[in-house]
Amino acid sequence: EVQLQASGGGFVQAGGSLRLSCVVSKFTFDDYNIAWFRQAPGKEREGVSCISFRRNSRWYADSVKGRFTISFDNAKNTVYLQMNSLKPEDTAVYYCVAGNWKLTLAHTYNSWPYWGQGTLVTVSS
User: Fold this and answer.
1) How far is Cα of residue 22 from the mean position of the Cα atoms in its chain?
2) Which of 117, 124, 125 is nearest to 20 (CA)?
3) How far apart are CA 67 and CA 64, in angstroms?
4) In this structure, which of 10, 37, 50, 81 has its CB flanked by the most CB atoms within 10 Å?
5) For residue range 69-118, what is the model confidence (pLDDT) as tens digits?
6) What is the pLDDT of residues 53-65, one digit of tens each?
7) CB atoms within 10 A of CB 38
8) DSSP 3-state assignment of 101?
């Protein structure tokens, strides 16, 4: 079964940057996509970014386009989410998730079967 271990959250002022990391294991690149979801207090989980190895594609939520970048280090089996120009509304628990290679951000969180533990990002104004 796919395993994911997320880290890198923290406290940052608005305009600052953070990089989240997600180490993946027991994972076949062509069979799965990796995504980052987040959940802010009192809100539903929303997809932030997704990477597909089979399609060589990346997707971003409109709210983070131009500010966040998803990438993958093959040698380290690690997916990164570089977050720049952070805003207070980016405050949330961030989760890395894995699912079938056909999944995209158009699919809600309950379509993604494998979840790592969350990492908290707090952006102060």
Assistant:
1) 8
2) 117
3) 5
4) 81
5) 999 998 999 999 999 999 999 999 999 999 999 999 999 999 999 999 99
6) 999 999 999 999 9
7) 25
8) coil
